[in-house]
């Protein structure tokens, strides 16, 4: 009887542990790897409670975490080029939320801005993405930690400000507008007669974003390759990642390959290689004579064993 009660107690503990994890939501950790300060903004969706902050300062190399309850949904972004006085009043060059304060107080990002969007499941899958639909201002990746399912890393590590078409650049070149933000026409904004997946198609501008950042939303109906799921995870949002995470994934399309690079890193490396090739500064390898010498020094002795 004691053994049976112990067995039941153990399983009851597991059920309670799983249930508690399901209702505890997730921890969001923000990391700044930029060479400058970033001021993240947080906007909860209608019906979701505010987190401990709606906007804060994140100095170079620092991090900060927030707990979000189950069922929470909202978006995060980074503000840059900000100037706030001692009382916290001011504005930002990109991603400004228009509150006139460090706290955004329920206001969203002024485009263009790179967005991370989340919907936490109630004991089920979380949905998340990185969106360039409202344009781009900072490199950003999202990583799921400790969850089950695909839990792929997503985001944009390419500096799109450097390859932004002239007609999409904001003054100063610190951000890149979307085609909708630049031109405001229905075909670019997926509105009016173009307000459906069948009528709204990728434009040459969204294709530029997609080729640079293949796992990010490039236009309104770019769902199939841009939305990711995970269950019971915590999430890390990194601004200006020096290189993408190589965390493993159960989805072969998002795991690292034999060369040790994942899809985000492959895109970044390909972009860098093409840029180097265009400027005549291609990636260099060891000189052939030195390479041959190394082979002889390392391998030749074993031939006589």
From TrEMBL:
InterPro entries: Osmotin/thaumatin-like_sf (IPR037176), Thaumatin (IPR001938), Thaumatin_CS (IPR017949). It comes from Ziziphus jujuba. The keyword Transmembrane applies. CDD domains: TLP-PA. This is Thaumatin-like protein 1. The chain crosses the membrane at residues 287-304. SMART domains: THN. One of its GO terms (cellular component) is extracellular region. Disulfide bonds join 34-240, 82-92, 97-104, 151-230, 156-213, 164-176, 180-189, 190-200. Belongs to the thaumatin family. Residues 1-25 form the signal peptide. Keywords: Disulfide bond, Membrane, Secreted, Signal, Transmembrane, Transmembrane helix. It is found in: Secreted. SUPFAM superfamilies: Osmotin, thaumatin-like protein.
